[in-house]
Design goal:
Blueprint lengths: L24 H7 L4 E9 L4 E10 L9 H11 L2 H19 L4 E7 H8 L6 H8 L7 E6 L7 H13 L3 E7 L6 H7 L3 E4 L1 H4 L6 H17 L2 E4 L5 H9 L4 E2 L17 H8 L28 E2 L5 H10 L5 E5 L5 E6 H8 L4 H5 L14 E3 L4 H8 L6 H4 L1 E5 L2 E6 L1 H18 L9 H13 L4 E9 L1 H8 L1 H17 L7 E6 L2 E6 L4 H16 L5 H6 L1 E5 L5 E5 L2 E9 L7 H17 L4 E5 L12 E2 L3
Helix pairs in contact: 2-3, 4-6, 10-11, 15-17, 19-20, 20-21
Length: 620
């Protein structure tokens, strides 16, 4: 029994005989027209409107065949996969035509089925179907699935050209799930690429996923492709994806599959998309940690072989007077040992050393357990070397390898310098004490707020009388005080709206978008004052402060440590650069240190204008 499909030019060949376990149930469902489509909305994240719908096949409601997974299993069991796919395409077009919806329709189809439909000799299948069901070609997007089944890439490329020539559009489904490839993207030139839901779900809390989506966005810019994020299920994820510049999105937070099609995004999503506040992006705590040795100049020193003799070592050191060591490697360039110049030459200069030992193998005088550093080591591995009890690397240096093979030598001072520079660079991204974003992410977020012309409040948070506390109790308790401040500030900020950064030392900055920022500042000051008392000794708590030396070495009384918050309100267009915002916030901080309640507020001024005196005072 053939399927009653009106796809004249793409009608599949008669289905093969049923398998022993099949009973023709799917064939009967298709024959009876019992399958139907539900339509899930795809939103335009810029406009906050429904841009398109995706057609999803379903079996009879309440039956064992309602689930699409069940239908696919039946199609595979009955040998009807190609016929089932083409039947689903026609069902989607027929039901969409009846809705008279003017928007776009995304229809799933495998690469094999698409090639089959477009290469049959009978005629143009899609053109006939579109005309029959009164659907315009420019409103249909064929969404390629089952990418791993692409057999003939050249043929698929030609089919893609044919589809585009008809006015249809193409989408690549589930990009990033391990099946789709950059080559397929490059070959077929899809109009849309759907990012797999794995990368969209939880992106507001996952900096690694954020970086992947950013990379995909850059590729899309190269190819001129529109991106669509699947699996959006929370407002926080939606806000982040919107602010990353993704134009389209799909997921239960925006709208569920249903009949008839949903013409507006759900109210919860509409509220998020209408909110102009800029999302706070999750931050990587240790960016670019691996491979820092690749930036270090490696000494391209000659090597010794196990068969070389000690007199050959002396000859090499004489030929290279600046060389601090020589490595011994095997025939595969795997390190075996390291010979330090100073130690060797001291021994070689001894009476009768060269006569007795000169012809001995080099490993006789080598350190057989040298420091070996891979070029892909991360910062923490290198710090472990610096702090280990074995400090021979300071004199001997170390061997640098790439995938276990010798590439050169390094010195102890190079290692110390590389680790120091890496730590400094990392601290610019994330403070190592509090793990809050450092100066670079702070600057980037201010610039995002300015470029989107979003109103915000920059609050500069500083500790009063922290230096005498730190001098009296030591750095360990001083670090506890700074971590307490970070915890209190973060606790009273809304993570989806308010960005908290650690400038350095005891200085923090908060970029508020919460409308109740003033109350939050008050709570931060009060909460910190309460908990900071626990870091003072009982006598200091009773006295309300400590006796310590000031900056001039004069011993005097200092009140217990508190917080001061200098605030700058920034309206759209008032500042152009992040530096302008930071400078004015720093000035407000100085005012806050003199304010009785610890808060001062300024209105941001253009950098060319003179700074005005305090314009708003906080209520006690």
């Amino acid at each position: 029994m053939l399927l009653p499909s009106p796809m004249a030019c793409a009608a599949p060949s008669p289905p093969p005989p049923l398998t022993a376990t099949g009973h023709g149930q799917l064939r009967q469902l298709m024959h009876d027209g019992a399958l139907h489509c539900v339509f899930q909305p795809i939103a335009d994240l810029n406009e906050g409107t429904v841009f398109a719908h995706e057609a999803l096949i379903r079996g009879p409601a309440g039956s064992p065949w309602q689930s699409p997974d069940t239908l696919l299993a039946l199609a595979d069991q009955e040998g009807l996969m190609m016929a089932f796919e083409l039947h689903c395409v026609e069902t989607a077009l027929a039901q969409w035509g009846h809705t008279h919806n003017p928007g776009r329709l995304f229809i799933n189809i495998s690469a094999d089925a698409l090639v089959h439909a477009c290469t049959q000799p009978q005629g143009n299948a899609f053109a006939d179907l579109l005309a029959r069901h009164h659907v315009k070609a420019r409103h249909v997007v064929l969404e390629l699935t089952e990418h791993e089944r692409v057999g003939d890439m050249a043929q698929l490329r030609e089919v893609a050209k044919t589809v585009h020539a008809m006015g249809l559009q193409l989408a690549l489904d589930d990009f990033g799930d391990g099946r789709s490839s950059l080559r397929l993207w490059s070959e077929i030139k899809p109009d849309f690429v759907k990012i797999d839901k794995y990368f969209a779900q939880g992106i507001s809390r996952a900096p690694d996923q954020l970086q992947v989506v950013r990379a995909v966005r850059e590729i899309a810019n190269v190819f001129g492709t529109a991106l669509l994020a699947e699996g959006i299920e929370t407002g926080d994820d939606l806000r982040v994806l919107r602010d990353m510049g993704l134009r389209y999105g799909q997921g239960y937070f925006l709208g569920r599959p249903q009949r008839p099609p949903q013409h507006q995004v759900l109210a919860q999503a509409a509220a998020v998309l209408a909110d102009c506040r800029v999302a706070v992006m999750p931050q990587l705590q240790h960016p670019a940690r691996p491979g820092i040795m690749r930036n270090m100049a490696v000494i391209a020193a000659p090597v010794l072989r196990p068969t070389d003799q000690l007199e050959d070592v002396a000859a090499e050191f004489q030929r290279h007077p600046d060389l601090h060591a020589l490595a011994v490697v095997d025939e595969h360039n795997h390190p075996l040992g390291l010979i330090n110049r100073q130690g060797f030459m001291n021994d070689y200069a001894r009476l009768y050393f060269r006569e007795i030992h000169g012809r001995k193998p080099v490993l006789h005088h080598a350190n057989l357990h040298p420091r070996i550093i891979e070029r892909d080591f991360d910062v923490e591995e290198l710090v472990g070397i610096l702090t280990s009890q074995d400090q021979r690397y300071l004199a001997d240096g170390f061997i640098v390898t790439d995938n276990g093979r010798y590439v050169g030598l390094g010195t102890g001072d190079q290692l110390v310098r590389s680790v120091t520079e890496a730590r400094i660079e990392a601290a610019r991204h994330a403070n190592p004490l509090t793990f809050l974003p450092g100066n670079i992410p702070i600057t980037q977020h201010i610039q995002r707020l300015l470029s989107t012309r979003s109103p915000f409040v920059a609050a500069y948070v500083d500790l009063n009388h922290f230096k005498p506390f730190n001098d009296l109790y030591g750095y360990w308790r001083g670090d506890e005080m700074i971590r307490l401040a970070a915890s209190v500030v973060t606790r009273h900020c809304a993570p989806q709206y308010d960005f908290v950064g650690h400038v350095g030392g005891d200085d923090f900055i908060v970029l508020f978008q919460s409308p109740d920022w003033h109350e939050r500042c008050r709570l931060i000051i009060d909460d910190f004052a309460l908990h900071a008392m626990g870091l003072f000794d009982e006598s200091a708590r009773l006295d309300g402060g400590i006796h310590a030396e000031d900056r001039h070495g004069v011993k005097r009384f200092f009140p217990c440590t508190t917080l001061a918050i200098g605030v700058v309100t920034v309206a759209p267009g008032q500042c152009q650069l992040a530096e302008d915002v930071a400078n004015q916030a720093a000035l407000a901080k100085h005012d806050a240190k003199l304010a009785p309640n610890g808060i001062s507020v300024r209105q941001a001024l253009p950098p060319a204008a003179p700074l005005a005196p305090l314009v708003v005072a906080s209520a006690a």
